[in-house]
Amino acid sequence: MPNARALPACSILLLAGGRGQRMGGQDKGLLSWQGRPLIAHLHDKVRGLTDDLIISCNRNQDVYQNYADRLVTDDQTDFPGPMAGIRAGLDAARHACMLVLPCDVPNIDQALLQAMRECAAIAPERPLMLREGEHWQPLLCVIPTRHRSAFEQAWAAGERSPGRVMRSLQAQELACPLDDPRLANLNTPELLQAVQSIER
Fold it and tell me: What pTM value is reported for the model?
């Protein structure tokens, strides 16, 4: 694996632009967990890894700007999904690769973030996605920004799945254990209450 000091600079995109349907329409990134907004937990995990921290959000920009270097918004107003946020992030990113995380995985740890960057650096022309057992996790990924045109072309053709786009670009995988607690999506009120932080 490449030495941590030799890893190329990366932009980081935190996805917080969803409709929050499973949360009753609330802005998920700003919901409280362990006494702080979810977005604050993600900010703490990634702030030291980049000088280009981007948040995709479609409301409450005045709050989100406290956790990012820059904000991006979807180019449509009907919450078209994470693909739109990724496209906006790729268009704004300043570095050759962009690490993407959803705002509802506050238990992700530094070891996994480091592993994602190291694996992505092995074949920097290919996207990387986490894979949990048999299931791809396309919103936990590293995308070479050189592929922004591929995402735009797929979007124009009606594609809305970032995972399918990345697999078409021969995405690498980084395997994680099934039910890895670091990947727990706190995307319902019940999970937000039930899942505790993990210490590693």
Answer: 0.90
Q: Which CATH superfamily is domain 9-194 in?
A: Spore Coat Polysaccharide Biosynthesis Protein SpsA; Chain A (3.90.550.10)
List, for residues 66-117, the tens digit of each pLDDT value: 999 999 998 876 667 899 999 999 999 999 999 999 999 999 999 999 999 9
Determine the residue type at 1.
Answer: M
